[in-house]
Design a protein that fits this description.
3-stranded antiparallel sheet, 11-stranded mixed sheet, alpha+beta, Amidase signature (AS) enzymes, 16 strands
Amino acid sequence: MTKSVRALTLVAALLLGPAGLLAVDFDSATIADINAAFDAGTLTAEKLVQMCLARIQAYDRQGPALHAVITLNPKALETARALDVERKTKGRRSPLHGIPVVLKDNYNTADMPTTGGSVLLEGSMPPADAFLVKKLRAAGAIIIAKVNLSEFASGGAHSSLGGQTLNPHDLTRTPSGSSGGTGVAIAAEYAVVGMGTDTGGSIRGPSTANGIVGLKPTHGLLSREGIIPLALSFDTGGPMARSVYDIAVALGVMTGVDAADPATTKSQGRFETDYTKHLKSDALKGARIGVARDFLGADPDVDWVVESALQAMRRAGATVVDVRVPKWLLDVKGEFYNAIRYPEFVVQIADYLATIGPGYPKTLDQMIDRAMRFNATRGDGAGPNPSRWGLFKREAVSGTLADYRYTSVRDHGLPLLRAAVEGMFASEKLDAIVYPTSPRRPAPIAAPDPVPGGGSGTASATNIANLTGFPDLIVPAGFTGDNLPVGLSFVGPAFSEPKLLALGYSFEQATHARRRPVHTPALPGESISVQNAARDR
């Protein structure tokens, strides 16, 4: 985007109001803008939650009927009012004080059901909030809704309880999985921040398909305690938002070692509580960026957007070099992924099921038995999910955690793969490797969903970050000729989130490639008034 076009865009988004106030469109407002409005007295958390609820009412079951929400928090407005009073009397707890957040419905919440999107867990009330949910609430965030997902975080953007979620950019295209409900909710402005989970690409696929920012953090940076597991060797939670700035704010609130999740000990001395200090618009200047060209060539429109993005980085002062992933790694990454993912689910889902009420299945075999009894769509829209339930059977016969097929990959395959990727960074002295998050534009819903990280083939690079445990930041890069979003992934070594966020922010400020989905336009009265001098991001 040229400077002149960018200037016109800013003029359209920021209209001068009375007494030096700027009217900032909610879609483009960052957490910094919202806090500036809170501080100026032109916005309250109660009003902000009302805006989000109005959008959910307008677009989730009416209008385009996106079906992103599974459960609304009935106490969201009450919580917002209490936080407004607290802000006036004691000050804000954190930058997230009064900020609406949506949670993928595999995060435990003690006050709302946690279902994994499945009729098998319908109504399940966990005994306590997940660690990250506790962190968010302690920071003053308002959990406004639990949102749909690929059932038990695997497969396409569909679940037996929540049904099919639609992409707000094109209702016929997949919003991707498994954090599809979170991706849609953030793109459609149901909240400011959303939480997804990622085992093989489940934050990153929905981020690119819905044209938003998302972060799959380093394995161990964020606790997984209280999140329904898929495969703990790869699982991580992570934030999704409409700007890199908001990702940085949310991430800093949630870091910390958790005694209930041993993986977080890896982050001791390496996590930070304020990642916004790293955000510099000129961070690309002097950076060395590798391009993983093995993941180009599947879609000419996506390739064009990627090449344009690379050119923007060169203009910003980055050195861009081509890198090639070893062929053996491309050949084995899907097999390595499945060798870990399938057998871990069998054991770890049983561990989770042991923590919830007695009326629910306690093993994968019991889940299969109950699923086979549910064979017709109910009046409320809940219905069978044969594609995910069929996968249950493959998981059930995948072997044990003592099986050589599992232990050989865990003990030797994953370290080998991680060493190879670390070598790619070291040999070229790279700050990050970039690739198209999805090598193809979002597929039609009626077609098989090419979910990134699905565990087979070489079409997507996303599961490499899970196999290595490395962080991966997705930033909108542009649109295809038929107006579908394309995201660019920035991958770095373990705990390189400060560098990735800096590079992603610099790229975002150089391109401003995100835009509001066509099916979720602004509603009346959604602008946020801030002091002109206060809007610094």
